[in-house]
């Protein structure tokens, strides 16, 4: 059954106008009035609906039933990802959503090659929100990961309690695997550096404020690999995979 995100609050018995992008997919799939589809509004659970009307640019559906199923991780993970080059952020966000991340915090660090003006940052955030929605549709998630505003690294660590933050760094003497097996599941924020990693000054500042320095083992992972490997390792230790 085709599955789509519909931001309008859904309720059994209601007939809703589907977003333009969903109407486009309905047309691409050559769906007809009377066909069934699955909808979710990001607030939990999902709905079985039946197409009521379809034309070239618009479509509507009548909601028939609600399933309260949940597929979220039993603990909250925020991905604090320093901006990588090119389209790597799209891939990171897509896969992190598939793995169950609850929030994504883009960070501007000193070694970030990408420098975004406020206007470009706004457009990027809009694009990344679309990536989150598409990845949620594909992966069966019924709640959308929260996308935070792009923030400077120093401002971000200075405005929060860093006790729940895991700084992944090859300088660490303890591995993420060791830490997760010795620690009960809890809310965490994974801090991933850009190409070249965080500077020593950035790492020292985060650790001084309470961040936990952990490594991913003896090999150096690329920025687009580190977060996803960490999410998988945490899921294997804490459950939810």
Automatic annotation (TrEMBL):
Alphabetical GO biological process terms: rRNA base methylation
Signal peptide as annotated in the record: none
Location (main, coarse): cytoplasm
Catalytic activity entry: uridine(1498) in 16S rRNA + S-adenosyl-L-methionine = N(3)-methyluridine(1498) in 16S rRNA + S-adenosyl-L-homocysteine + H(+)
Locations listed in the record: Cytoplasm
Enzyme Commission code: 2.1.1.193
Superkingdom of the organism of origin: Bacteria
Residue stretches making up the Ribosomal RNA small subunit methyltransferase E PUA-like domain: 18-63
Keyword annotations: Cytoplasm, Methyltransferase, rRNA processing, S-adenosyl-L-methionine, Transferase
Residues in Ribosomal RNA small subunit methyltransferase E methyltransferase domain copies: 72-234
Family stated for the protein in its record: Belongs to the RNA methyltransferase RsmE family.
Function of the molecule: Specifically methylates the N3 position of the uracil ring of uridine 1498 (m3U1498) in 16S rRNA. Acts on the fully assembled 30S ribosomal subunit.
Protein name in UniProt: Ribosomal RNA small subunit methyltransferase E
Source species of the chain: Massilia cavernae
Classification lineage: Bacteria, Pseudomonadati, Pseudomonadota, Betaproteobacteria, Burkholderiales
